[in-house]
Design a protein that fits this description.
530 residues, alpha/beta, ten-stranded mixed sheet, four-stranded antiparallel sheet, 14 helices
Length: 530
């Protein structure tokens, strides 16, 4: 009885384990200007009170970088590698190259060790909910195959928030919703559910994910292992769909995409606030590290049809301008040392650094021996905990190779599209979205389509693109012509960077065959099933 009482007391104090709980939240397509802390206080259109307070109680991570779109960032965070060493292609998870049983698939090679696998080695209970987009071809590509004890998720870049459908096989719609090691039959909604038909029994997908994680936290006991939770909300990716009360709350916005987008942001802010409040109620918050960041910049393409805004940064999702790869981010939680709470860090951190950082908190090495044996690239992530916890004043990361690929080419070689070194950033190639949105975007009076705004960044100082992103974060002043030696030096460094380019193969008919015949019109693994 004495041991039990002591355990309960320690749990109430948030000291139940020397290893912290970790809550890792990856928000989809979250624009820079769509975060409350990047707007003046009281700005009515952006309502993120929980995010704002969590950031103020924690650390604003002002220079956090990722890839310019979904799947490469998600492959990077789960594998601990820069996308140039794991995946730079945003293809569907249905590709297969049978000649390469290690890397001949969409997203992460089979023999790379997942983030959750590392955390399990450190004694964690591991849980995932939301968007996966990091592979589907084999059982090893699923969250369970990558080390998650429980998971409720979808495989593709997106699906319908109300009926969970994504694409079709031979004209028949297919559901994308998976629970652990099988299709989530019975959890998915009726196909009649939609944004215009939110009837009783139609459960909003991000509510399902939030409810699953709420149950995980509610059921946790002080005698249980510490929790590692990876929460990847569908929000704020298209389609722009959200429960009607949230739409009504933003009825004062007359631009429909902007109205829907801000309503969705408010929904996920509320959901995250509910979970962190539960952690506090259970006495777990004092022993929790929370990290939240976006998977890429906000999508501004298509004349703003996706609803996001990255003002005052240049460009957005699918571009290597700052608006595409520098993202909203913060760390919070009671486990953070008091001296760092309420601070702002401007040193570089990348999404793939969390793999190594969390492994450090779990007390395990981030070295990937399984990948090494298969001849795959090693981990790129850097442990940034000494920087975040205030043990050192500068970030250990001073250099960021920026990945790229040929658009819409499923067999594109892995490209290095830019490089950040110190205060400077070089970009190469033809860049879309080469401009800036306004304070209020999208809006009914602007006819600008960022998708049609290109700037060519060549490989000479006369045609190149070089910026001091510390003094000029909006990338207005191109320094290539005035600093030719610096441009040439960075271009030379860029050319020396090695990359990983597996042949992933075409879309496999096995994906549809298994969806229809094995899984009952649900997407799921389709190769190496025996």
């Amino acid at each position: 009885m004495r041991t039990t009482a002591l355990s309960l007391l320690l749990g109430a104090l948030g000291c139940q384990s020397e290893k912290p709980h970790i809550l890792y939240v990856l928000v989809d397509d979250y624009g820079w200007a769509d975060a409350g802390w990047h707007r003046p206080e009281g700005y009515k259109e952006i309502q993120t009170p929980n995010f704002d307070n969590l950031m103020k109680e924690g650390i604003e991570l002002d220079r956090h970088y990722v890839f310019k779109f979904c799947s490469p960032t998600r492959s990077a965070v789960q594998s601990g590698r820069n996308p140039i060493n794991v995946n730079v292609l945003n293809i569907d998870p249905t590709n297969l190259n049978p000649d390469d049983p290690v890397s001949g698939y969409s997203a992460i090679p089979r023999n790379m060790t997942g983030m959750a696998e590392q955390m399990k080695k450190g004694g964690y209970s591991t849980h995932m909910a939301g968007k996966w987009d990091a592979g589907m071809a084999t059982p090893q590509h699923t969250p369970k195959g990558r080390g998650y004890d429980t998971s409720l998720f979808y495989f593709h870049h997106e699906n319908d928030y109300w009926n969970n459908k994504m694409g079709a096989c031979h004209g028949n719609p297919v559901v994308d919703l998976w629970d652990g090691d099988g299709p989530a039959h019975g959890t998915n909604n009726s196909w009649s559910c939609s944004q215009s038909n939110q009837a009783p029994g139609c459960n909003y997908e991000d509510s399902l994910f939030a409810s699953r994680l709420t149950s995980i936290v509610e059921e946790w006991k002080p005698s249980d292992p510490p929790l590692f939770i990876f929460w990847a909300p569908h929000i704020v990716h298209v389609p722009l769909q959200v429960p009607q009360p949230y739409v009504d709350k933003f009825s004062f916005i007359n631009d429909k995409p902007r109205q829907m987008y801000h309503a969705m942001v408010n929904f996920v802010d509320t959901a995250v606030g509910n979970l962190t409040d539960l952690l506090k109620q259970k006495g777990m918050w004092n022993n929790t590290v929370m990290v939240l960041h976006a998977d890429n910049g906000g999508p501004i393409y298509g004349s703003g049809a996706a609803g996001a805004n990255n003002y005052p940064l240049k460009g957005g999702k699918v571009s290597n301008w700052e608006g595409g790869i520098r993202v909203n981010a913060f760390a919070s939680g009671g486990y953070l040392p008091e001296k760092v709470k309420g601070t702002k860090l401007e040193g570089y951190i990348c999404g793939w650094d969390w793999y190594t950082t969390f492994a450090h908190l779990a007390g395990v090495t981030a070295v990937d021996e399984k990948a090494e044996k298969a001849g795959l690239p090693p981990i790129d992530g850097i442990n940034v905990w000494p920087y975040i916890s205030g043990q050192v004043d500068t970030s250990p990361r001073t250099r960021i190779p920026i990945g790229d690929s040929l658009v819409h080419d499923i067999q594109s070689p892995t490209l290095v599209g830019g490089l950040i070194e110190g205060e400077y950033k070089i970009i190469v190639g033809n860049q879309s979205q080469s401009g800036w949105t306004g304070v209020t975007w999208p809006n009914e009076t602007s006819s600008w389509n960022p998708s049609n705004s290109y700037q060519f960044c060549g490989n000479t100082s006369a045609t190149g693109c070089l910026f001091n992103i510390m003094s000029d974060p909006g990338e207005h002043d191109n320094l290539a012509a005035s600093h030719p030696e610096l441009f040439d030096s960075m271009l030379a460094n860029l050319s020396k960077i090695t990359t990983f380019t597996p042949l992933r193969g075409p879309v496999s008919p096995l994906a549809c065959e298994n969806a229809m015949n094995r899984y009952g019109q649900f997407w799921g693994p389709f190769a190496h099933l025996d």
